[in-house]
Amino acid sequence: MARILVTEQIADAGLDRLRAAGHDVDVQLAPTPDELVELVRGAHALIIRSATTVTAEVLGAADDLVVVGRAGIGLDNVDVEAATARGVMVVNAPQSNILSAAEHTLAMLLAQARNIPQAHSALKAGRWERSRWTGVELSDKTLGVIGLGRIGKLVAQRALAFGMRLVAYDPFVGADRARQMSVELMDLDQLLAESDFVTIHVAKTPETVGLIDAERLRAAKPGIRIVNVARGGIVDEADLAAAIAEGHVGGAALDVFDTEPCTDSPLFALDEVVVTPHLGASTVEAQDKAGDTIAEMVGLALAGEFVPYAVNVGAAEASETVRPFLPLAERIGEVFACYADATETGEISVEYTGEIADYDTRILTLSLLKGFFDRVSDDPVSFVNAPQLAKERGIEVRESSTSTSHDFVNLITVRAGSRAIAGTLTGLRGDPRIVMVDDHKVDVPPARHMLIVRNEDVPGVIGVVGTVLGESGVNIADMDVGQTADGTAALMVLATSVPADDEVLDRLRAADSIRSVHAISLSA
Q1: Residue 195 lies in a domain
Q2: What is the CATH number of the domain that holds 271?
Q3: Are 399 and 498 within one domain?
Q4: How far apart are CA 29 and CA 195, in angstroms?
Q5: Helix (H) / strand (E) containing 254
């Protein structure tokens, strides 16, 4: 029998499942951080939702802990890296709310098209305003779907029933998969120019923050309507409010906001805007599914069985030699997702060189894929579903190993088309380093903010880059330069203190002798 500590409200059916299996379910709601450190001592499992923060300190106090279960999707409140280092499995319930989110998207779409909330409020206030709230039909309108993950796919399927034409932007979805969904793929700017309605289903990353801004809204089809039930901040809220007030954008329906709780916004004053307080996952069914699913996953983990929704399944399964490379592999995947050319990712090859080649490295490939898809997919990504996400996007993953290594004791290299990234662990502490980009030898840490600059190998380029960054207040924390064998081209990799904004990137790209600039932003 295991002791299971539960710190937040979980569906009774889930807890009853654990009790029926003979476990001691200890419900201690809303403990303080200090109380949690004491309560977790002796616990074999910890079940939480979003309000409990599982820090390295908490994990350090839990010598008997086997698994942390998050009844929901997001894991911002769990130190997964620290859990992995201690061999503690982290599981979530990634499928629990996707149907609720998709249905809420359609509800918001219809509410916006037919002005339902506005008409409802007017009538309850004693005003019969039929002509004022005339809406539009969905039939024969074009719906642009940004992100064709699981939720985007469900929305697309349901929109077809309304007779809508479907177009989509997702650079990591293959043409075959899109055709199967009756969706036409196109780039983002074209999608905005052709769509009557747009719905957003992408992860919130540094690349997608402000994805829909004033410039894109100005270029969008007049009268376009924006629906966002994904993440706040993907649409610039101030720019959206201005575009609606000016009459270029027809309206919006928003369930998420850049800062939450949000009770004051210029969008709230606009009749054309429908809002809800982050209700995408707020259904009885979604909450029940989350509780029941997490109870099942925790039970499997405690029984030592296969856990389908383990986020860091390799924590227990990886050998002592391979385990330290799990965070490195995930970071390499993140960097590569930001750097790779999406048109060349039909085949991704992963090569292991050196001592680790003598071990089972499949878990490292899963870790790399998890990092990759965390950056490009709105789907919850785990070690288990990462290969399926690759398959759905038409990406073939090849793995190879060789124990012969000339420059490093161990090396992980990922390639797709003309792009490649390699990394290793160095020193007694096993510090992660990026040591190769496109066959250029470099040596920099995989920092949160990075730049990869390709340039002609001529004097003065480093000075130009330093000047542009310095004038813009972007400090260089680390930097290295690699040359091609023939000395005609060079490549700079820089770690910076803050991200370089679009203006800085444009200045760099306009400089003589600079061929390309890629901005890399990793998760914290």
Answers
A1: yes
A2: 3.40.50.720
A3: yes
A4: 47
A5: strand 251-254
Residues 6+ apart with CB under 8 A from 512: 464
207: tokens are 């690349």
Q: Which residue has the tokens 């005003």?
A: 127
Q: What is the pLDDT along the chain (524 residues), one digit of tens a residue?
A: 899 999 999 989 999 999 999 999 999 999 999 999 999 999 999 999 888 999 999 999 999 999 999 998 878 789 988 887 788 999 999 888 899 999 999 999 999 999 999 999 999 999 999 999 999 999 999 999 999 988 999 999 999 999 999 999 998 887 888 888 999 999 999 999 999 999 999 988 888 899 999 999 999 999 999 999 998 999 999 999 999 999 999 999 999 999 888 999 999 999 999 999 999 988 999 989 999 999 999 999 998 777 878 887 554 456 677 878 988 999 999 999 999 887 777 899 999 999 888 888 888 998 899 899 888 887 767 776 788 788 888 889 999 998 887 788 999 999 998 899 999 999 888 899 999 999 888 999 999 999 999 988 888 999 999 999 999 999 999 999 987 666 678 899 999 999 998 899 999 999 988 999 999 988 76
Domain housing 200? 98-275
Give the C-alpha distances (Å, rounded to integers) separating 128 from 31, 201, 244, 273, 463: 50, 36, 25, 20, 68
Model pTM?
0.72
SS3 call for 28: coil
Give 350's Cβ-side CA count (13 Å radius): 24
CA pair distance 227, 144, nearest whole angstrom: 10
Contact 340, 393 (CB under 8 A): no
Whether residue 201 is found in the same domain as residue 219:
yes
- By annotation, the residues acting in catalysis are 231, 260, 278
Read off the tokens for 399. Answer: 């793995």
Residue 276 is given by DSSP the state -
Number of alpha carbons in the 13 Å side-chain half-sphere of residue 300: 18
Q: Look at the chain and count its residues.
A: 524
What is d(CA 156, CA 444) in angstroms, rounded to the nearest whole number?
42
> Are the C-beta atoms of residues 196 and 141 closer than 8 Å to each other?
yes
Structure tokens belonging to residue 381: 């990504």
